[in-house]
Structure formats: structure tokens, C-alpha cells
Amino acid sequence: MNAPVDLTFVRVRTPRLLLRAWRPDDLDDLYAYARVDGVGQMAGWMPHDSRSESERILRRFIEGKHTFALVLLESGRVVGSLGLEEGRVFPASLPPSALGREIGYVLARDMWGQGLMPEAVRAVIRLCFSDWKWDYLTVGHFSWNDQSRRVIEKCGFHRIGEIEMATRCGTVEQVYKYCLTRADWQAAEPAAD
Ligand SMILES: CC(C)(COP(=O)(O)OP(=O)(O)OC[C@H]1O[C@@H](n2cnc3c(N)ncnc32)[C@H](O)[C@@H]1OP(=O)(O)O)[C@@H](O)C(=O)NCCC(=O)NCCS
Question: Ligand 1: which of 142, 147, 174 to mutate, judged by most atoms within 8 Å of the beta carbon?
Fold first, then answer.
């Protein structure tokens, strides 16, 4: 089942990133990456066509309290988002009372290919399993999104199924779903507790 979450006061450091709750003054950075063609479509949404659209999404991030802003430490720029969303697919190997959520993420196009999202996802996995003792995390990608598939594979998730999803881009996508349980993560991570 979906775990309760409130990221308002949560801060996570990685070598290159600070993960923290979104703030009203992040609007320019959000609009700068969300307006770029070819980014949002890979996650099922169209590029933002105005600052007011970004403002609406930013408000949703802040009020929802389950989405991190990814801040590049060297510049302070917000270069992406990582959400702990309510999942619709649950691991069959765990009881219905098991706690977890579904990860979703987007990175500014000019930052692709430097391993930043795997760095963020690994830190969030550690937060959810080591600090919060959640039982599982799920994640998914559109069948053709090899970039996201690589992030998911590098972070140790296992494929558990697929569903069909209508997107805000007007397409219907096959979504491949993956899961990582705390038990699998502990077995694979020498430093896990
Ligand atoms: C998916 C995404 C978050 C990956 O983040 P990232 O920090 O670039 O991840 P990585 O650096 O590990 O790169 C992942 C793969 O992308 C590919 N890639 C790298 N640089 C690339 C570039 N400039 N252009 C296209 N693909 C590239 C490579 O295949 C890489 O896999 P590899 O490490 O095996 O070579 C990013 O591509 C993104 O934001 N995409 C748009 C939104 C999206 O797809 N969200 C996920 C929805 S499920």
C-alpha cells in the first residue's frame, strides 16, 4: 500500500545534488527545463507553454509534499524533480500491508548522460529503505524510453509487469513496471542496514 510521505523538511545530499522540497522561488528553473521539447513527453506530459503552467505544477509539487527538487550543488540551479508517487502496481511477493511508493523523475535536457538521476534515485532508495523502513519501491517507463530503462536497471530494480496508460500527450503507452524490495536491496548493497 502507498506509504504516507511528507518531504517538507527532508533534505538529502549526494556528491553532486541536494534533494529538497520545492519552493516558490524555483519557478524560473522549473519553467526553464519543463518548456524544452522532448523532455516531458518521455514522462507523459507536454512541454510547458507558459510560466503560469509551470506555476500551477509548482504549486501542486509544494502542496503535494511528495516531490523533491534536484538542486545542483555547484550552481544552486534546480535541474529536475523526483517524486514519490502513489503507485498502482504492487509487488505480488509482499503482503498488501507492505509500504512503498512509485518513483518518477525528470532531468533537464542539458544535464542528461552524467549519471545524475541514478545518483538521486540511489539516495532516495537508501532514504526509503534504510531511514523509513519502507518495504518496496516501484518505478516504470514507457516501452520505448531506453534512457529511463537504463536508470532503473542501474539502480537494481526488477521487472514485474506492464500496464497500458493514456498520457496527457494524447498517446496510449505500454508502461513497463519494476520493483525493488528492501530485502533485495539489503542483499545487494554491502553497506545497507
Ligand atoms: C531518464 C533520465 C532521467 C535519465 O537521467 P540521466 O541522469 O541522464 O541518466 P544516465 O546519465 O544514467 O543516462 C541514462 C541513459 O541515457 C542515455 N543517454 C545518456 N546521455 C544521453 C543524451 N545526451 N541523449 C540521449 N540519451 C542519453 C544513455 O543510454 C544512458 O545509459 P548508459 O548509462 O547505459 O549509457 C533523463 O534522460 C530524462 O530526464 N529524460 C526525460 C524524462 C524521463 O524520461 N523521465 C522518466 C520517465 S519514466
Answer: 147
